[in-house]
Every structure is written in C-alpha cells, then in structure tokens.
Predict the structure.
Amino acid sequence: MNTTKELNTAYRLRHALDERTHELPENVRERLSSARKIALSHKKSSVEAPVAVLQPAMAGRTSAFRQQGEGHGFAWLGRMSVLVPLAALVFGIVGIYQYEQHQQMLELAAIDAEVLTDDLPLSAYLDHGFDAFVTKGQD
C-alpha cells in the first residue's frame, strides 16, 4: 500500500513538472533532459545487476518434484521443522515430571515402610518432646 502511494505521488509530480516545462528556457530543458537520461541509465544498470540469492540445498529438488507432478515434494518438511522440536520439548517435560513424581512416591513409600516396621508406636512420632529427643540424639 505504501508503494502505491509513492507511485501516485511520483506520477502527480511528473505530470506537474511536464506541464511547466514549456515555460523553462531552452538550455535548462536540455540540461534537465540530459540529467534525466543519465539518471535513467543508472537506474537501469542497477536494476539489471545480478543479485546473489542463498538457496537451501533441497530447493532444486522440490521444484523437480513439482515439475514431475508428484505434489509439493518436501514442503511439509518446513512445517515439521517447527513441530518436531516443539513436540520433543513437550514430551521431555512430561517425562521429567512423571519421573520426579515416581521418585517422590518411592521416597514416601520407603519412609512409610520404615515407620511401620519400627518398634515405636505412632503416637511417639506425634509427640513434640520425642522430636526434640531425636534431634538432640543426632548432635
């Protein structure tokens, strides 16, 4: 849309200049004409200059597949290059979460097994004095 505005402005400007050209002296018109020819020659030479374009290695192969009528070739590969790492990341995070949950369950089961196989009654573990005794005994 911006290019359209620029083109319209250029056309209006050119039209306004063309309307007033007959009022200019002859030597000024000749200088403007030669300057315009020089500018156009520079413009044409810059447009015709080759531009180096970096193409992926598979670019030629996909166009060959399209010419043979085998569909879109490897076009799906571009879409999958985003989805595959994203899926791997999600599965990795879910796997790590499941592993941590399993390890926590095993630790709690081991603590429960130790408490149940001990000779002390459960009420001893609830006593605040016993907790102080255990911490004092460890020092």
